[in-house]
Amino acid sequence: YQDIDGWGGCFSEIGWQALLSLSTAARRAVVGEMFDPASGCKFTLCRVPIGASDFALSYYSLNDSTGDYAMNNFSIARDRQYLIPFIKAAMEFQPALKIWGSPWTPPQWMKTNNHYAGGSIRWDPQTLTAYALYLAKFVESYRAEGINVYAVFTQNEPASEQVFPSCLWSGVTLRDFIRDYLGPTFRNRSVNAEL
Predict the structure, then answer these.
(1) d(CA 136, CA 193)
(2) Distance between CA atoms of 161 and 159, rounded to whole angstroms?
């Protein structure tokens, strides 16, 4: 008794790197098998990691400048190498492709263990305000690239501490972060995206 918003998968750096090993025609054919609305799997809704995931080529975030709470050094430059070309290749078949972003981890300098893997976010207003801005800037930056980011999920696998990029959240911390920081930041910046 639920509406289905769409079908899809997850874009990753490793996935695009593998596709780059093919000829242009073969790569287009493979992407078509996933996204072509006539002959492919007809994917219409996909996830993209916000920063490093377990399928990234290395650990990174969209702002690795320690202490940059104003997000002056926020950048999607690395995403322009792998993730955005992958998404744009899919959009050749599905121009209205819906994207939802999900971080595996905040930037390491925002975390209790100062590492991409494990730990949790530092629970202080300065960090939480900066992280909400980080997520808002992700949506704004991708939309500036012509990519339809319609939603942001606050944390991939929030109860799972992994040896790859991850971050622990509880139901209470997720609720409080969304209520007190992320929601207000999205409203104040007119980021019209679902949470």
Answers:
(1) 9
(2) 7
Q: Is-contact 118 159, C-beta < 8 A?
A: no
User: Which residue numbers in the chain have pLDDT < 50?
Assistant: none
Distance of CA 74 to the CA centre of its chain: 14
Q: Give the pLDDT score at 62.
A: 98
So what's the pLDDT on residue 124?
A: 98
Name the phi and psi angles at 117, rounded to 5. Answer: -90, 135
| Cα–Cα dist 179/185, whole Å | 10
CA distance 161 to 10: 20
Does residue 141 sit in helix, strand or coil? Answer: helix
Within 11-59, where are the H helices? 13-20, 24-35
Residue 163: burial class (beta carbons within 10 Å; 0-12, 13-18, 19+): exposed
**Per-residue model confidence as pLDDT tens digits over 32-83:** 999 999 999 999 999 999 999 999 999 999 999 999 999 999 999 999 999 9
Contact between residue 17 and residue 79 where contact means Cβ atoms under 8 Å apart: no
pLDDT at 187: 98
DSSP notation for 101-124: EE-S---GGGBTTSSSBS-BB--S
